[in-house]
Design a protein that fits this description.
single chain, 147 residues, alpha/beta, Rossmann fold, 7 strands, 28% strand
């Protein structure tokens, strides 16, 4: 689907929040500056307009609470070794009530084995092209909500 501007990306991410019913793992793929963090900000602000969304570029991980589930936003761009995820106790956080939004998932080296949804974001003309790839039943429902 084509996303024309930042406002359209926020609208998309807020629809994504509404479509997600429980926890899981969502990979956010795309080049620097393509809109991954904007997507996460809109996603979290769908639950709370005043939510202050911090970029986890240096902390690797930020955690938020919504009315539906916990959200862990990870930016793995600066991750030098997937073993660092063990030091963050990420495995202990994986459950049905936690939704992971992971930027630069390829840096995790296969750490997240059960990805539910991949969101690929690419530059296209003056906007963005967004592709959803579902890997689980709930992700199929999420993807179908956009059609």
């Amino acid at each position: 689907m084509f996303i024309s501007d930042t406002n359209a990306m926020v609208d998309f991410s807020q629809q994504l929040f509404k479509a997600c019913a429980n926890g899981g793992v969502i990979f956010l793929n795309g080049n620097l500056g393509v809109g991954k963090t904007t997507l996460v900000r809109g996603f979290l602000q769908a639950n709370n307009k005043n939510e202050r969304v911090r970029s986890p570029t240096y902390t690797l991980m930020e955690q938020y609470e919504t009315d539906k589930f916990s959200v862990i936003h990870m930016d793995l761009y600066r991750l030098s070794d997937p073993e660092e995820l063990e030091y963050l106790a990420v495995r202990e956080l994986i459950d049905k009530n936690t939704l992971f939004l992971i930027e630069w998932p390829e840096k995790a080296g296969g750490y997240f084995k059960n990805v539910d949804l991949e969101i690929n974001i690419d530059y296209e003309k003056q906007g963005r092209r967004v592709e959803l790839i579902a890997h689980s039943e709930w992700a199929i429902k999420v993807k179908d909500s956009f059609q």
